[in-house]
User: What shape does this take?
Amino acid sequence: KAGVTQTPRYLIKTRGQQVTLSCSPISGHRSVSWYQQTPGQGLQFLFEYFSETQRNKGNFPGRFSGRQFSNSRSEMNVSTLELGDSALYLCASSLYLGSHTGELFFGEGSRLTVL
Amino acid sequence: EDQVTQSPEALRLQEGESSSLNCSYTVSGLRGLFWYRQDPGKGPEFLFTLYSAGEEKEKERLKATLTKKESFLHITAPKPEDSATYLCAVQAQGAQKLVFGQGTRLTINP
Assistant: This one.
């Protein structure tokens, strides 16, 4: 069974640019969550999508957005990049909304560097 | 606000030297507490879910326990392949997101 696939794995952008990250969940999983991981803040919740609808959102500015397609694949977008957006962006999929068992399946992440 | 604090930040052990990692939490009604393992360059990998005080879960050399204020991850006779960052997370009642701690970076020397 294929795992969660995230693309691209690495990317470098400059301040002010925008970036789109992609996530393909495990087949059959309908929930996709996004997390930002930095050395200082650890893993922080960005948002969760289920059945193409954003169901929950973390405390991030509106520059961070996402969407989910009918095949459960998800994208997140960050506009007007800032240096502080440099991080590992992790996508996680689960069968159910909110993953009541806590069992999230994470991808390997997209490492974004903003110069 | 829900909070998770893990200690120590880093821990070095010799192979076979047992120890425990701590996860203290404050949450407005606990739905579940979760342990994950993260290897360098990889995403976190799910280990355990604990739902109520007194509950214990085991997997190979790992055992997780839960009280009303904290959880422990006990590592018995660890091997070098147990080296990783161990993350603790909580989910509040009625919430969907997980709130993670900063993690404990565990190194097992052969």
Remarks:
- The radius of gyration of chain B is 13 Å.
- Chain B has a mean pLDDT of 95.
- The CA atoms of residues 9 and 104 of chain B lie 5 Å apart.
- Chain B has no helices and eleven strands.
